Amino acid sequence: MENVLERIGSMGIIPVVAIDDIAHCSELGYALIEGGLPCVEVTFRTALAADAIEALSTAHPSLLVGAGTVLTVSQAQTAIDAGASFVMAPGFDHDVVDWCLDKQVPIFPGVMTPTDINGARNKGVKVVKFFPAEASGGVKTLKAVSGPYADMQFVPTGGVNPNNLSDYLTLPFVLACGGTWILKKTKIVNSDFDAITETVREAVQIVMQTRSG
Ligand code: 3PG
After folding, report:
1. How many CA atoms lie within 13 A of 110 on its CB side?
2. Measuring CA to CA, which residue among 183, 172, 176 is closest to residue 149?
3. Are 181 and 149 in contact, with CB atoms under 8 Å apart?
4. Backbone dihedral region for residue 191 (phi beyond 0: left; psi -120 to 50: alpha; all else: beta)
5. Per-residue pLDDT of the chain (213 residues; tens, 9 = 90+)
6. For helices 114-122 and 138-146, what crossing angle results, to 10°?
7. Domain 2-206 is classified in which CATH homologous superfamily?
8. C-alpha distances in Å from residue 151, one per residue of 110, 188, 199, 200
9. Threshold 0.70, pTM exceeds
10. Which amino acid residue places its CA nearest to atom 11 of ligand 1?
11. Ligand 1: does its nearest atom lie under 6 Å from the Cβ of 178?
């Protein structure tokens, strides 16, 4: 579990994607690896999520593949069976969190309020997804709600983009940011993987600049 957290923390970004066609998985993985961000969260927003997790982790063993939009224990189980290394959820569901902790699967439950954070913390979760980050008030809200929880780390997701990425990553309690801006559906559908690699490089550049400054 610690290894996954370290890898995510060192990359600083979790690219999020919903896969509509398994044929895209191989090149999509290459684009992430070539661009310098070997990580992807495949969401259960399409019926192909488990197949995509399996295809990506088989084709690219160096890629850290996780499952996103996990709403149920059954989805968490399916994701892990398919090869996912972590589980990301939009909300804080006790059953999903308990199941993942029991199986020693890294779980990032979604939180928006101090009540959510408290609940996750009291189960032993150390890193939570702050969702939906921008719609909830962005950096200002995250600073306020995280205040009482000095031992927690956050993965802001929802509305994060190249313009505000640095603002989030500057916060010492932000492990990484998640978002779909890197793996845009239009680019994937058009097999524009060179453009995706370029977007990945730009994002990595922002992480490096933010952390070196
Ligand atoms: C998610 O599924 O985690 C979010 O919907 C991603 O939000 P974004 O599309 O604003 O990056």
Report:
1. 15
2. 172
3. no
4. left
5. 679 999 999 999 999 999 999 999 999 999 999 999 999 999 999 999 999 999 999 999 999 999 999 999 999 999 999 999 999 999 999 999 999 999 999 999 999 999 999 999 999 999 999 999 999 999 999 999 999 999 999 999 999 999 999 999 999 999 999 999 999 999 999 999 999 999 999 999 999 999 997
6. 50
7. Aldolase class I (3.20.20.70)
8. 17, 38, 32, 30
9. yes
10. 179
11. yes
CA-wise closest residue to 30 among 40, 21, 20: 40
Residues 41, 54, 134, 187: which is the catalytic one?
41
Q: How many residues does the chain have?
A: 213
Domain segments of the chain as ranges: 2-206
157 CA → ligand 1 middle, Å:
6
Instruction: Give ∠ CA 188-105-127 in degrees, rounded to 5.
Output: 80
Residues 41/88, Cβ–Cβ less than 8 Å: yes
Q: And the tokens for 77? A: 């189980």
Alpha-carbon span 100 to 121, nearest angstrom: 14
For ligand 1, the distance from its centroid to the CA atom of residue 131, given in whole angstroms, is 8
Query: In angstroms, what CA-CA distances link 194 with 20, 30, 99, 189?
Result: 19, 10, 39, 13
Q: Atom 5, ligand 1: which residue's CA is nearest?
A: 158
